[in-house]
Structure formats: C-alpha cells, structure tokens
Design brief:
Elements (H helix, E strand, L loop, with lengths): L3 E5 L1 E4 L4 E7 L8 E7 L6 E7 L4 E3 L7 E6 L4 E6 L8 E10 L5 E5 L3 E6 L1
Parallel strand pairs: 2-11
Antiparallel strand pairs: 1-3, 3-8, 4-5, 4-9, 5-6, 7-8, 9-10, 9-11
C-alpha cells in the first residue's frame, strides 16, 4: 500500500507558474515510477509526466519544454514544476505511484487530486 498526499495547485494567469508536490508514505526507491496525470471535464485522464526510480523521465508532448519533474528520495516526494501555463492546462492533477512486485503483479496508487486552473 502507498498513500499519496498532494500539495500545490490553485489559480494562475496564463503564462504563470505553479508547483505540485506529492509525498509517498513509503520509500520512493521502492516505487517503480511516480508521476502526474490530469483530467479535464469531459476528457479522459492523461499522462502529464513520469519519473522512474532511476530518474528517467517522460512527458506528454503538450507539456514538453514547459514542465519539469523531479524527485527527492530523502523525502519520498516528487515535484512537478509547471511554467508558461496555458488555459488548456486547466484540470485536476493526480499523483500516481506504480509498483510491480517480484511476482510481476502491477499496482497503481492515486492521490486525491488537486485543481489547477489557468485563466486567460
């Protein structure tokens, strides 16, 4: 089991910046990957950015060059830095932890979500 606690988010004007953080209840080194997904009204949940335990990263094309993701293994946290925000970034952002155990069974854990609203 992993509990994820998100912080950050809020309302910002287009072109502004926000930072989201997610703290895991267990060592982040024991988690295969952590990342952020988002869901806008009427849309499916989509990947925003992910970082593996080896610090490899992957980003959605729509956020490349604007968002960065980092991890602090000492604090078991990941941080999503969002710059040059656009109105289309408006969504609920969810922290995710993905774990595959020694038997190959995969588990996904989710935070409660945090609202990001970008005004034009």
């Amino acid at each position: 089991q992993v509990q994820l606690v998100e912080s950050g988010g809020g309302l910002v004007q287009a072109g502004g910046s926000l930072r989201l953080s997610c703290a895991a209840s267990r060592s982040s080194l024991s988690i295969n990957s952590m990342g952020w997904y988002r869901q806008a009204p009427g849309n499916q949940r989509e990947l925003v950015a992910v970082i593996t335990s080896g610090s490899n990263t992957n980003f959605a094309d729509s956020v490349k060059g604007r968002f960065t993701i980092s991890r602090d293994n000492a604090k078991n946290t990941i941080t999503l830095q969002m710059n040059s925000l656009k109105p289309e970034d408006t969504a609920i952002y969810y922290c995710n932890a993905f774990i595959r155990n020694a038997y190959g069974t995969a588990y996904d854990y989710w935070g409660q979500g945090t609202q990001v609203t970008v005004s034009s």
